[in-house]
Amino acid sequence: MTVATMQKIYYRPINKECDIFEHTFKQKLPLLLKGPTGCGKTRFVEYMAQQLNQELITVACNEDTSAVDLIGRFLVKGLETVWQDGPITKAIRKGAIVYLDEIAEARPDVLVAIHSLTDHRRALYIDKLDIELHAPENFMLVASYNPGYQRGFKDLKPSTKQRFVAMQFSYPKPNVEAEIICNESNIDKSTAEKLVKLGNKIRNLVDSGLAEPASTRLLVDAAKLIVSGIPSRLACEVGIVHPLTDDIDIINALNDLVSMSI
Q: pTM for the complete prediction?
C-alpha cells in the first residue's frame, strides 16, 4: 500500500478524463479505469488526487489480496489484541481516495466486500467489529484493470463493471507520447520520436508471441537511461526488450528492431 506524496505530479491530459474524474468525485461515484499496462492509469489517479487536494491510498492487487487485507484485521501486540485498519477502512475514516490497481487480480471476496461501497449505500460493514462505516463526502473508490490481460483468464463480472463509471485508456498518439517521454526524461525530441516509433512497432507484434506491448512507461525508462549516458541501443535492450520477454528468439528479433530504429 502506498500513499501519494506532495511532490508535483506531471500528467498530460489526452481527452476529457480530468473533467470526468472531477465530476465523478463530486457526484460520489466509483470509477473504473480500463487499459493496458503502463499507459498512465496510475499516474492519472495520482495527478487527480493532487489536483483535488485529496489524500490517495494505493493498493497494488494480486492473487493473494483478500478482503481482510483491504478492510483490516486483529493483531497481537504484546499481551493485547488490537484492531488494525486496512487501506479501504483508512480511506473511509480519513475521507481519502482509495485506488485498487489491477482489481481483477484480487480474490473474489474483495469484490463482494466493496459492493456496498459502489452503490447508493456508500457503506462498509466490518463484521469483526460489528460496525458499519459510511463514506464521507470526500471519499472515492477508484479501481483499474487490463481487459486484455489473459493470465489466469481473470476478468471482472459484468455485474461488477456496471457498479462503476468507466473510462477506457490506451497508449497516446505518437506526438503526445513523444511529448510525455520528453517531459518525463528530459531527452531530446528526436530521440523521443524514435522511441515512440520503436514502441509502436513492438506493439504491432503482440499477436506474434509477446504477452504484452511496450508500454509508455518502458519507453520513458529507456529514455532516462539514454539521458544518463547509456548507449541508446543498450538502453532499449535493458529498458524495453528484456522486461517484455524471456524468449531468446523474440529477444533477438526485438534487438534487431531496436538496431533498425534507434
A: 0.89
